[in-house]
Design a protein that fits this description.
glycoprotein, about 70% helix, Tetraspanin-7, TSN6/7_LEL, mainly alpha, membrane, transmembrane, single chain
């Protein structure tokens, strides 16, 4: 049991170290995937499109760096900026969303990449605290399992 807990502890430790060391690569990959999701965006029930809409509605943002990122997509040429960028769904018409100067007043202007990464970084302290607490319990479990094993081994020879 102590060996199993030690293995799990080492796996969690290595994952935390790798996540910390490669955090910049994670950000870069997230930004490129968000750009790809915008490029391939369509109004159908595609998983990537739904994810983009959910991020934009939840974080009140639009595009990767800002709302003008949508101008370089095929979706913008057909329908303009998506409705998930609108500040108020009632006040957003399709004509406004096709005109970037009018859309600036109707949609969220901040990009989603900065907001997503800042939310993730603000929550990392909570994740690190919970991980540290779990690691402490694992270490206590390892120590107690070793003590129990030692106690059982010592008592077998005294019973005779």
């Amino acid at each position: 049991y102590a060996m199993l807990l030690s293995l799990i502890f080492l796996i969690v430790l290595v994952a935390a170290i790798v996540g910390f060391v490669f955090r910049h690569e994670i950000k870069t990959n997230f930004e490129s995937n968000l750009n790809l999701a915008l490029r391939d965006y369509n109004a159908t029930a595609d998983r990537h499109s739904e994810a983009v809409d959910t991020i934009q509605r939840t974080l009140h943002c639009c595009g990767v760096q800002n709302y003008s990122d949508w101008e370089r997509t095929e979706y913008f040429a057909q329908r303009g900026i998506p409705r998930s960028c609108c500040k108020s769904q009632d006040d957003c018409s399709e004509g406004d969303l096709k005109d970037p100067s009018k859309a600036k007043l109707k949609v969220f202007v901040d990009g989603c990449f900065f907001l997503v990464t800042s939310v993730m970084e603000s929550k990392m302290s909570v994740v690190a605290g919970i991980s540290f607490g779990i690691a402490c319990f694992q270490l206590v479990g390892i120590i107690l399992a070793c003590c129990l094993s030692r106690y059982i081994t010592n008592n077998q020879y005294e019973m005779v």
